[in-house]
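request received
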Amino acid sequence: MTVLLLALLSACNSEGPVTDPPADAPALPALPPTPLFNPDSAYAFVAKQVSFGPRVPGTPPHTACADWMVAKLKGYGAQVIEQRATVKAFNGKELPLRNIIARFDTSSKERLLLLAHYDTRPFADKDKERPSEPILGANDGGSGVGILLEIARQLGGKKHGPGIDLLFTDVEDYGQPSGAITMDEKSIETWALGSQYFAKNPHVAGYTARFGILLDMCGARDARFYREAISMRFAPAIVNKVWRTAAAIGYGDRFVQESKYFVGTDDHLPINERLRIPTIDIIEFHEPTNGFHPSWHTHADNMDVIDPSTLKAVGQTVLESVWKER
Ligand code: AHN
Ligand code: ZN
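response:
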């Protein structure tokens, strides 16, 4: 009797029977482990961009930074395609446009698109001091590019699922000054000129991709990323996939399962609207300002804002999301 009672008790405590998988279960091919995103390397890539000075289209620091990016990307084994054009800014100024596309595994017909803008805002229109001078754009511009360059370093030569195109857009941030959200159609069209150009003139005839991920302002200390409204309109399944992936690898605190409407437009809009590639925007929502980070479009957008642990949370989540895609 005592023996039976003990047996019953231990059965209640156990988590259920431990059994081997059935012998006829198909063996899944093991996925190669996801490369480790190095936050110090990404941080150094942001610092390097900032060291050129403001990357305003048509200025020498912009050219020097673009040349450095192209050399780096080629060094990691990418095929690099540049798109050059002249575009007109909202103020009538003619600007040289230079989109940079780095292609990995060009033989693969299945593609994924990762993008970020590398130009920086030509004025600090949200700053009380020196509002007509250009900003350093460590977070706004620098962070997304830094993360993508580290992803390029990790992808170089490694075979995984779909081929990857990295798109570094130009002339994203030369738009008509306005607040977020409250932008009319005409004002919206003055932003993201490089992405608009790409959507009308893709680098490969008939280009498409399974999905796209845009990185914008992904470097500030303690940054939180909410489900962004334009992304939810065009690509809710991709938002869910990426946010779930973040939680699965331990970044659920950074990627919050809540939607916020605070972005007027961004580089993902033309890609969604014209190319019909479901593309999301990973962009910080800053709770205290109910919108962008306080350094946004000010001279405070410098290296003091950038924290490697934020670069890591975003970079590892994006790497994991593309690596698990078969
Ligand atoms: C607005 O919503 C006004 N701008 C989002 C695009 C942007 C500008 N991202 C960085 N700078
Ligand atoms: Zn900006």
